[in-house]
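Lab notebook, page 48
Experiment: co-folding of the full assembly
Goal: obtain a model of how the components sit together before planning crosslinking
Operator: M.T.
Materials (sequences as entered):
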Amino acid sequence: AQTVTQSQPEMSVQEAETVTLSCTYDTSENNYYLFWYKQPPSRQMILVIRQEAYKQQNATENRFSVNFQKAAKSFSLKISDSQLGDTAMYFCAFIHSGGSNYKLTFGKGTLLTVNP
Amino acid sequence: SQTIHQWPATLVQPVGSPLSLECTVEGTSNPNLYWYRQAAGRGLQLLFYSVGIGQISSEVPQNLSASRPQDRQFILSSKKLLLSDSGFYLCAWTASGTGGPTPFFGPGTRLTVL
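Observation: model returned without errors.
Model output:
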């Protein structure tokens, strides 16, 4: 069974500083995708960043980047130059690619607060 | 472009009443579809997912059921709601086939069972 673990229920950071959110996962498959989602108070799930397991290069999207360590099954999210609008719940998620397993599995989330 | 709709946006229902939540996707064909429930301040619980018309996989049977009567329509139902069914219900879709899956979510339905 695939599992996703986010070990930090809550984190806080000062505006303009950098913060890293942790995520580990467990799977026996080689081909899969990893995601980070942001859920602001509106509760809309917003895709932040996507990583394909077969790519060694870490994905980046503006201020957001990941540290993908496939052997360690680790997928952390780094937010640079934190902004007040980054305050939200962040979820790490996992899905296999191909085969017959289409389950999209989420971690329990990390509540990030950016302080002025 | 693809869009995903959910309705209603908000629902208040008495205990023991039936439930029907609808999710539709536009601009794609043969999507994989998912229903999630999120209790206040907590993570996402996968309820059902579907890879095609009439194909439903259940993760949390309880008193909920799901159906997929059309390719881009996914319905979550209950015959008798429980207090514990209150929560925020999210529908998501991913594209099947090449290009790899990227899940996108609808705006959600906030359900309160009284």
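Interpretation: The CA atoms of residues 64 and 79 of chain A lie 5 Å apart.
Next step: discuss with group before ordering constructs.
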